[in-house]
């Protein structure tokens, strides 16, 4: 695996006259938790959509493990290159199948992701189960494996979604507000898990809870109106006058 798995250079996305993301460059490295913060409408979700391949940039390019993937569709970026993981992203809108069990949901996610690799053992139902169980273990849902997914609490559903992403064995994780709607206990657990995950993945986190962001991030990028206003370690961002000004009237740490 490359030490710098995901690089964005000059990413720009316009919607008519609006520049939702303007000339944003970013490097996501394994072992580094990179948080993107900014007021509502700053372009954070659009940035994630561009990186995941859900949306085409108006300008700029994206490199995955050194390879230009700017024109790759989302499914191909999720698969990645043989021998290297791809991009795993959690959706704000759930894609859980509520009538299936928790384990079945995660197993299917693993199978779909690996189905492209013809000889992958994970492609078979039996082969995917250990990967699915390991992913459930990681997010703390192993005890709920046999439950029907539709009976989970909102917070548990979010954890299930994360397990479904992890089961695909991605190199890069793009998490857009993973703590949304979680209770304090689940939030705390997930925040700790994010730290662990960042050791093995390149992790981009978008999160509104500033206590969590400043506690877990190694690097922060502050976006305002589509642009990068500031970037640095938490202490530098906290001390930045420009960041404070941009957030006037908003809560930051
Ligand atoms: P954030 O996630 O930081 O709140 P978004 O990326 O969702 O911000 O949105 C950035 C800006 O782009 C907003 O002004 C939003 O209205 C606009 N925008 C996002 N997606 C679309 C779209 N599909 N069509 C038109 N405008 C969009
Ligand atoms: Mg958003």
Topology:
Blueprint: E1 6-15, E2 18-28, E3 33-37, H1 44-52, E4 59-64, E5 67-68, H2 74-79, E6 87-90, H3 102-114, H4 125-139, H5 154-166, E7 172-176, H6 184-200, E8 202-206, H7 210-216, E9 219-224, E10 227-232, H8 234-239, H9 241-246
Helix pairs in contact: 3-4, 3-5, 4-5
The protein binds adenosine-5'-diphosphate and magnesium ion.
The site of adenosine-5'-diphosphate has 11 residues, from β2 and α1.
Q: What is this entry, summarized?
A:
The chain has 253 residues and is an alpha/beta fold. The protein has helices at 44-52, 74-79, 102-114, 125-139, 154-166, 184-200, 210-216, 234-239, 241-246; strands at 6-15, 18-28, 33-37, 59-64, 67-68, 87-90, 172-176, 202-206, 219-224, 227-232. It has a six-stranded mixed beta sheet with strand order 6-7-8-3-9-10, sandwiched between helices. A four-stranded antiparallel beta sheet has the order 2-1-4-5, with helices on one face.
